[in-house]
Specification:
single chain; alpha/beta; 7-stranded mixed beta sheet; 6-stranded mixed beta sheet; 11 helices
Length: 380
């Protein structure tokens, strides 16, 4: 990776938005922008536009960006200047805020790259992760913190986001640094004792003191590990699986929990042919939590190849389940053509909790009264 070039990238999410951000970092940031912009401080008493100085002060400025070579088409922007080394990357950096039109931001990028190269500077589009890589190379981030940034960007759930934030906070890196320093200090004393073996009255560190130091290190490591949760656990979203015979009301419950029509609902048995999985945020006593809600096809013992593949996908989802919601319709609601649940949920999910739900509680007899529910079932 070439760290001598000035890099530029769109730093706002893809798509259109009210405001977009173009970010620059490198030695030629201010000189290149000075050829394309006039700015003024965001002070009520200052109105005159001026060129960007070679070393601008840190802060936000109102600016006008020249979009064309003839300097006739101007774009109002907000410019944030961050002189190095007190910037994210440790280099001279700037951010331009403008309307979040992808084509407009790409045109600004192309204009800056062309103007910088015309002036003899190495200005190019940034590679993926290059801003954070430069922050690491310039000592602004530790390797653990840089990994946390990557984990945060790649997060697909609340659990993964929390895992990335823990890395970005740098607590693990600081602990590892402290342990390494203590171990290096003990090693230095041992080596000093070896160097002065001929001196009978010189003892760099007594064996008992060395043992005490090492025991303390082991105890701190064990304490940290006992209180920690592995990244694979933080990244794992709990699966809640809906299971039951065909036409038991699983898809209706699935849609109701999601608050939208995700699964096709029909009175015809076997409408759901695959595993439908969607993230769901629920409120708990400790705050919002995210789970993966899965709707399975009804488990039966048909022998056709399609049904066997469908059952294999369902059983794979059951293996991941931490909670099984077993949907059981009232007596008489199960279709005649459905032979019922072929594989008991408990056999496929030995480590999952199971809650039996009596579905179709709103379905009444001909007399208009709701059917009674067994005490062990929850009405849905």
């Amino acid at each position: 990776m070439d760290t001598d070039a000035t890099i530029i990238a769109i730093a706002s999410p893809p798509g259109r938005s009210a405001r977009g951000v173009v970010r620059l970092s490198g030695p030629a940031v201010f000189e290149t922008l000075a050829r394309l912009m006039t700015v003024r401080p965001l002070d009520a008493g200052v109105e005159a536009n001026a060129s960007i100085p070679d070393a601008p002060s840190r802060g936000m400025f109102a600016g006008r960006f020249m979009l064309d070579a003839g300097r006739e088409l101007e774009l109002p922007v907000l410019a944030l200047f961050m002189p190095g080394p007190r910037s994210y990357t440790g280099e001279n950096s700037a951010e331009l805020q403008m309307p979040g039109n992808p084509h407009l931001m790409q045109r600004v990028m192309d204009r800056i790259i062309a103007e910088g190269r015309q002036a003899g500077h190495d200005v190019r589009a940034a590679e993926p992760g290059e801003f954070t890589a430069r922050a690491y190379f310039h000592g602004r981030l530790s390797l653990t913190e840089a990994e946390g940034v990557a984990a945060t960007i790649a997060a697909r759930s609340d659990a993964e986001l929390r895992a990335g934030q823990m890395l970005t906070a740098g607590r693990l890196g600081r602990l590892a640094s402290e342990l390494a320093d203590d171990l290096a200090g003990s090693l230095a004393l041992v080596e000093a004792g070896i160097d002065f073996t001929d001196e009978e009255d010189v003892v760099a560190i007594a064996p008992g003191e060395l043992a005490r130091r090492l025991d303390n290190l082991v105890e701190r490591i064990d304490t940290h590990l006992s209180r920690s949760v592995g990244m694979e656990t933080l990244r794992a979203v709990p699966w809640v699986v809906l299971i039951g015979p065909p036409n038991a009301g699983k898809s209706t419950l699935f849609n109701a929990l999601l608050g939208r029509e995700r699964a096709v609902v029909s009175h015809v048995a076997g409408t759901t042919r695959d595993v439908l999985a969607e993230p769901l945020t629920i409120d708990t006593r400790t705050g919002p939590a995210e789970v993966m809600l899965a709707d399975l096809a009804g488990l039966d013992d048909a022998d056709d190849p399609l049904n066997q593949r469908m059952q294999a996908a369902a059983k794979d989802a059951l293996q991941r389940a931490e909670l099984v919601l077993e949907c059981q319709p009232p007596a008489g609601e199960q279709p005649v053509e459905s032979p019922g649940v072929a594989v008991p949920p408990h056999a496929e999910t030995p480590h999952a909790e199971t809650i039996v739900l009596r579905t179709k509680a709103d379905v009444t007899d001909d007399g208009g009264e709701a059917r009674p529910m067994p005490k062990h079932a929850l009405p849905v």
